[in-house]
Amino acid sequence: MKHFKRSLAVVAGMAMATMAPATAGANTGTGMVSYYTAGTYEQTTNTDGGSIASASGTGDCQAACAAAPAAGAFTISLTVTKAHPPSPCRFLQATGTMQATWSDFTSSSASISARWVDEAIRMTGTVTSGTFQGRSISALFHPPSPCSGPFTGTLSFSG
Questions:
Q1: Pairing state between β 148-158 and 107-117
Q2: Residues paired with residue 117 on neighbouring β-strands, in sequence order
Q3: Which CATH number fits domain 32-158: 2.40.350, 1.10.3470, 2.60.120, 2.60.40?
Q4: With a threshold of 0.90, does the pTM exceed it?
Q5: What Rg, from alpha-carbon coordinates, does the chain have?
Q6: Could you give the CA distance from residue 60 to residue 143 in angstroms, rounded to a whole number?
Q7: pLDDT tens digits along 142-156
Q8: Backbone angles phi, psi at 14, to 5 degrees
Q9: How many CB atoms lie within 10 A of CB 4?
Q10: Which of 20, 37, 124, 159 lies at a 20 to 30 A Cα distance from 5?
Q11: What are the boundaries of each domain within the chain?
């Protein structure tokens, strides 16, 4: 009788799971969705002597794309909070935002922090609204020059 009750509970749980409504959009699942990115990067000095870094570009989905937008355009704005002397364009710490508009006409906003590591800019954060809301974001951009120019990289969402 115990085995029958356990089996019945498992079958009932499976039936409820298959009858539950699916949530639309890329917020479902826990796999890492990754985009190959390319764009332009620039770091400038603002009026109070601090540095501002920005990037804009596009991305095409490369991994776990079934429930994710196929492509998107994004902008990243960073305020440098800790410089990396003697290089005027590298930084140890920056904070800012990422905005994306996706090919399925949805959008995302994220709060991010960033830093130069070796020859790349590494960013991490959390998506605060829109597609991928609540998921972690990570990015790795490879600009050929630390001050400005084109870049390639990855932009990923997980969790």
A1: unpaired
A2: 120
A3: 2.40.350
A4: no
A5: 20
A6: 18
A7: 987 878 889 999 999
A8: -65, -40
A9: 8
A10: 20
A11: 32-158
